[in-house]
Design brief:
The chain has 2 domains: 3-76, Beta Barrel (Ribosomal Protein L25, Chain P); 84-230, SPOUT methyltransferase, trefoil knot domain (Alpha/beta knot, 3-Layer(aba) Sandwich), CATH 3.40.1280.10. The protein has 6 helices and 13 strands. The protein has helices at 29-38, 94-105, 124-144, 159-163, 195-198, 214-230, and strands spanning 3-4, 15-18, 46-50, 55-61, 67-69, 74-76, 84-88, 109-114, 152-153, 157-158, 168-176, 184-187, 204-205. Strands 7, 8, 9, 10, 11, 12 and 13 form a 7-stranded parallel sheet that branches. Strands 1, 2, 3, 4, 5 and 6 form a 6-stranded mixed sheet that branches. A hairpin with a 4-residue loop joins strand 3 and strand 4. Helix 2 (94-105) packs parallel to helix 6 (214-230). The longest helix has 21 residues, at 124-144.
């Protein structure tokens, strides 16, 4: 199996989709509808099919609206280091927005968690419902952004659990610039961190003097970390 740097190395595809089996790539009805009815792809147009674990195969739309393989599967290199953004639960559709944008940017792991000042609580079946919804959001965003790897999306956890992750840092005004030395960043709720959370151990990384919404801070820190990893952003010089 050959190795490609990104999905763009495979083909000038018109769309990207995830399938359970790359040896026999079959679309489910939802994906078929999206490709044929929403994107209006026609027979012969190029589509890349991925397994969500780094293997991607070039295909084309068949006469029946299904997928026809037109090349061998290749392995896309795993980005290093792995990047994690943990976001405290917030109201409304903001968690969905955060997951969508973090996936598009290329974050490897997304962790929703409950902070001391979190107003929103997901418990029991409600937690399961929200997790399934966020998984769908992440999958759709990964297809749109041509990702070879689906992000890991954890079930909701508590602050102590996520703060103990290796390389963790808290997003907080006045903190030092984000760095790949701290590839796990926690973004707090609307009310900010409590004194106990700030004293819990992880160092603080900052995004400037402004007070940002949780989802804005999550997207901003993800963009910086992904840019640092790709060599598109220069590391800060620490004095």
């Amino acid at each position: 199996m050959s190795t490609a740097r990104s999905v763009d190395d495979l083909a000038d595809a018109d769309a990207h989709v995830f399938v359970p089996d790359l040896d026999v790539p079959r679309l489910d009805e939802g994906d078929r509808h999206h490709l044929v009815r929403v994107l209006r792809l026609r027979p012969g147009q190029a589509v890349t099919a991925g397994d969500g674990q780094g293997r991607v195969r070039p295909c084309r739309i068949g006469a029946d609206g299904g997928l026809e393989p037109c090349g061998e599967a290749v392995e896309v290199a795993v980005p290093q280091p792995a990047l994690t953004v943990a976001v405290a639960l917030t109201k409304g559709a903001r968690p969905e927005l955060a997951v969508q944008k973090l996936t598009e940017l290329g974050v490897d792991r997304i962790v929703p968690f409950v902070a001391e000042r979190s107003v929103v609580r997901w418990e029991g079946e409600r937690a399961g419902h929200h997790h399934r919804r966020l998984l769908r959001v992440a999958r759709e965003a990964a297809m749109q952004s041509r990702r070879a790897y689906l992000p890991r999306l954890d079930e909701v956890c508590d602050f102590t659990t996520v703060a103990a992750l290796p390389g963790a840092a808290l997003c907080q005004r006045g903190g030092r610039p984000p760095s790949l030395a701290e590839p796990v960043v926690l973004v707090g709720p609307e009310g900010g961190w409590t004194a106990a959370e700030l004293a819990a151990g992880p160092p603080a990384v900052g995004l400037g003097p402004q007070v940002l919404r949780a989802e804005t801070a999550a997207v901003a820190v993800a963009a910086l970390l992904v840019g640092l990893r790709a060599g598109m952003v220069a590391p800060a010089v620490r004095r």
